[in-house]
Amino acid sequence: MPFLIFGILLAGLLLLLMHWWTNATVASAKRSLMWGIAGVCLLLAMVLLATGKALLAAVPAGYAALRMFGPMVASKMLKNFKMGKPDLGGPSESNRTTMSRVEALEVLGLENGATDTEINEAFRRLMGQVHPDKGGSDWMAAKLNDARKTLLG
């Protein structure tokens, strides 16, 4: 009998959650989903700790901590970076080496004598594949930008 009551309560809670989910904005749904995943990871970590598997508990606990506190840490690092405090090790204009014309052509996959139109087309095609907003690499996007700048002047 207690399992039946628990099941009915769980089904009702699930229906309420689904109703909220259909009316939520994208931002609030994403935020609540991330917090829900972090909560499940913390719950899993507690279960693993309770069963004596402390080493395994570090993985979900670390993921949950990253989801919960990662944006705060990242915003603080970005704030310090903008204020010019620490060097976070990323490439900057001052320590970036200049790219040779041969290297620029190689990065864009072009041959010597490529026209400006071909350079721009290759740049757009490759940037569409490696842009950081599409899950690509910041480093590769910077290399593409450097290559285009080197070739077009």
Notes on the protein architecture:
There is one protein chain. This protein is mainly alpha-helical. The chain is built from six helices and no strands. The chain has two domains: 29-89; 101-152, Helix Hairpins. The chain is elongated and about 80 Å long. The model is unreliable at 85-90 (pLDDT under 50).
Search tags:
Helix Hairpins, 75% helix, mainly alpha, 6 helices
Provide the number of structural domains: 2
Q: So how many helices?
A: 6
Task: Report the structural category.
Answer: mainly alpha
Mean of residue pLDDT values: 78
Radius of gyration: 25 Å
Helix content: over 70%
Q: pLDDT below 50 for ≥5 consecutive residues: which ranges?
A: 85-90
Global shape: elongated
Relative strand content: under 5%
Calculate the terminal CA-CA distance, rounded to whole Å: 77 Å
Instruction: Please outline the major beta sheet.
Output: none
Give the H and E element order: HHHHHH
* Number of β-strand runs: 0
Question: In terms of topology, how is this protein built?
Answer:
Blueprint (H helix, E strand, L loop, with lengths): L1 H22 L2 H25 L3 H29 L18 H8 L7 H15 L7 H15 L1
Helix pairs in contact: 2-3, 4-6, 5-6
